[in-house]
């Protein structure tokens, strides 16, 4: 079955502009010893673009990744977070910048922050491309947000529907 074409909410050029603007805000808050911790798999697109933008802003940070799963191929969180792959680099005494595509329930970001703190990071900062509204308070709020998204089912720029449409260069809605 083919998914219908998403409605474009944020075109590719606006995605790029928001990443560049966010890097300008983050760069003064970190140094070159910081480590960007990408939340896989959706955060990969944003993290790669953000790291390049941070480099253009004069910050060359390290890279690591956590593979967490709370959605699987479903459209709603399962309410628990599974660690599929852990950190590979030492974080002790360093600033960690957790990078994810979308902040929805807050479950993945909360779990990632806990894991990074447990790994000994001296400081934990969080960055998401899109923050969706949520009806109740979340355990964590991101430190840096590129875009305040509507309460819609988002695809593109790392966000998917059943593993598909992650590679779209824009953000669209599937509802």
Can you put this structure into words, describing what you see?
The longest helix has 15 residues, at about 10-25. Helix 1 crosses helix 2 (about 45-55). The protein has three helices and nine strands; from the N terminus they run E-H-E-H-E-E-E-H-E-E-E-E. Strands 4-3-2-5-6-7 form a six-stranded mixed sheet, with helices on both faces. The chain has a three-stranded antiparallel sheet with strand order 1-9-8. The mean pLDDT is about 90. The chain has one domain (about 5-70, about 80-175): Rossmann fold. It has helices at about 10-25, 45-55, 105-120, and strands spanning about 5-10, 35-40, 60-70, 80-85, 95-105, 125-130, 145-150, 155, 170-175.
Mean pLDDT: 91
CATH T-level topology: Rossmann fold
Order of helices and strands: EHEHEEEHEEEE
For this structure, the quaternary state is: single chain
Q: What would you call the structural class?
A: alpha/beta
Low-confidence stretches: none
The end-to-end distance, rounded to whole angstroms, is 16 Å
When the domains are counted, the total is: 1
Question: Which term fits the overall shape?
Answer: globular
Rg computed from alpha carbons, rounded to a whole number of angstroms = 15 Å
**Major sheet description:** 6 strands, mixed
Query: Helical residue percent?
Result: 10-25%
Helical segment count: 3
Top CATH class: Alpha Beta
Provide the spatial order of strands within the biggest beta sheet. 4-3-2-5-6-7
Strand content: 25-35%
Number of strands: 9
């Amino acid at each position: 079955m083919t998914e219908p074409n998403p409605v474009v909410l944020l075109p590719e050029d606006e995605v790029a502009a928001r990443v560049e603007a966010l890097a300008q805000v983050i760069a003064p808050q970190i140094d070159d010893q910081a480590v960007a911790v990408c939340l896989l798999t959706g955060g990969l697109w944003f993290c790669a673009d953000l790291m390049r933008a941070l480099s253009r802003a004069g910050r060359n940070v390290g890279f690591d990744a956590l593979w967490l799963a709370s959605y699987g191929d479903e459209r709603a969180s399962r309410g628990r977070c599974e660690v599929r792959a852990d950190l590979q680099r030492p974080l002790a005494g360093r600033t960690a910048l957790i990078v994810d595509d979308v902040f929805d329930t807050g479950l993945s970001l909360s779990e990632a922050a806990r894991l990074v703190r447990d790994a000994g990071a001296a400081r934990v900062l969080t960055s998401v491309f899109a923050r969706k509204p949520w009806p109740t308070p979340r355990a964590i709020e991101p430190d840096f947000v590129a875009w305040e998204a509507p309460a819609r089912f988002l695809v593109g720029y790392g966000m998917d529907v059943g593993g598909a449409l992650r590679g779209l260069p824009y953000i669209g809605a599937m509802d």
